[in-house]
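ugh ok fine here u go
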Amino acid sequence: MRFSIKLSNVLFCWIIFTALVFPGQHAAAKGPRTLEVHSVFPKGLIFLNESLHHLSTVVETLSQGKLKLYFRGVNEVVSGDELFHAVKTGKIDAAWSWTGYNCDKIPVCELIASMPFGLKAEYSMLWMWNGGGLEILQKGFDNHNIIVMPTHIVISEAAGWYQKEINTIADFKGLRIRIAGIGGEVLSHFGAIPSMIPVEKIFNAIASGQLDALEFTIPDVDQSFGFEKFARYYYFPGWHQPSSWNALMINKKIWNTLSEHERNILTYAARINSSWSLAMSYQRQMSALEMFKSQGVEIRRFSDDILNQLLQVSRKSLKKKSAANALLKQAHQSQVNFMKTVKCWNNLQQAPSQFVMPGDCGNKK
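structure:
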């Protein structure tokens, strides 16, 4: 009996010792930690679905299988317009959404998601990760019990699909257009009738004849929707949104239950996926445009005169919004200061365009 008691004491001490010295081994026995992430987009969208899969793979690889992301499409559990509130209140662990969908609650999101004539994607990513952008964005989410993590950079979008030609600024008058962000306000100045229709309701809006034009995203992703059946003219450039961000939104209480190691994994995975999304974006767009052309779509570009008038109104709109919101003003000034430095460096070290490696896109229109 005495021996068995001593042995049990030894075993008890050994269990405590190994739990303290080798905590990871015991944690592993519990199985992987899984965060359920609800997307604002339908499953199966070209590129966006790939991005979610890539992000999930990076997280699982970095954690050696101990942390996983499980994605659900829009309306599987929560509708797109309910995602923010669901994360904030803890109804769901996390969501993956376009940052611009939150601008009514967090005004600075509007600037980061769709600043007309703003930062190109590569500069937006540099500003976000190394220029103070993430810190500013997180300030906007702090009062909503949410940790935000930009994970996917969107390059300059198309200006949109139009059922009629846009030859002058006057052609926007009376145009019913689905367009996101500040760009819609700018077009309304010229008589357009903008609306921010959620992605899952776009098809119904088209079918019911509510729209004369719409913009969604880049050509590669637009393929998933069959917009070439809706409109003949596909306009560029994406003046209203030279870059944008999709981001993870994680409930803060859930975030606080993660270990420091798990938080670091998510942070690094967000940066890795951002770089991946940029690297994958450019080459894919021309093949998408060729497909659209084969379907009878005409690829057009707004005239310089139209773009200049859009620019002037955009500047006035940004000035007004900056005066109305301190954090948005801080973000705008931060981007301006960042680009001053970038432009000074580029002016010094970049060769003039005539000395750059040649490449003819073959589109003279």
